[in-house]
Predict the 3D structure of the following.
Amino acid sequence: MLALRSILFNLAFYINLIVRMIVFSPYYFLAERKKAWSVPKNWVRANHWLQAKIAGTTFEIEGLENIPEGGYIFAPKHQSFWDAYALLPWLDDPVYILKRELMWIPLFGQYVSKMKMIPVNRGARGKVMAEVLERTKREIDSGRQLIIYPEGTRRPAGAPPDYKYGIARLYRDLQVPVVPVVMHPGLFWPRRKFLRFPGHFKVRVLPPIAPGMDPDAFMEKLVEVMETASDKLLVETVEANPQIPLREHAKRRLRELGALPSDPRLQ
């Protein structure tokens, strides 16, 4: 049954994507940019509904009151394809810095170009990176929210932290608050797996870190705040979902925390 529900959800997910791109593309490309956000945001909402009804996976968001107005850096944990899109409806006008190669994908490239995403050659240095920073600052100053995953790439729930210093440089140069976000969707939508596990999890938005700190001190605080909150939420999520199978990273971290010693999944 799990495999069948997972297959059905995956099919529905991509059908939802393709149909909406066909049906709503004329409006998307003709509408004013901020109004056009309704197309991808409604796609996200539909995905949440499909995931709840077909896969049996639901979520809630805590701490929305911690999201400031205007421009800021949104810094979530990154475990799954889910968190690459799932929080868009709760952000006013988000912007990503993304690989320029993504702009070359037919139709998708035009979609992200419409939203003024910021392409970058990851091997670039010097003047090119200065231009990327300048454009990022313009977007932030106009009130947009820069989405940055502090660890750079998807990591399994419970994996040792691997934060990249790039977010500290952006924090220093952009002079805006950083909003840390922790969650464990990777327990329900694992990386590179087709199974979609049922259950319920929380997304926790933490209080923003104000601008003005030394970058090294900021980095130390960001890691401490996010990892402490992530560990706590991992224990809560695993405890609340006894049906979820645990991968080795999560098991190891829970053992290190001394949590749930009687849980048979940790044996």
User: Anything to note?
Assistant: The chain has a mean pLDDT of 93.
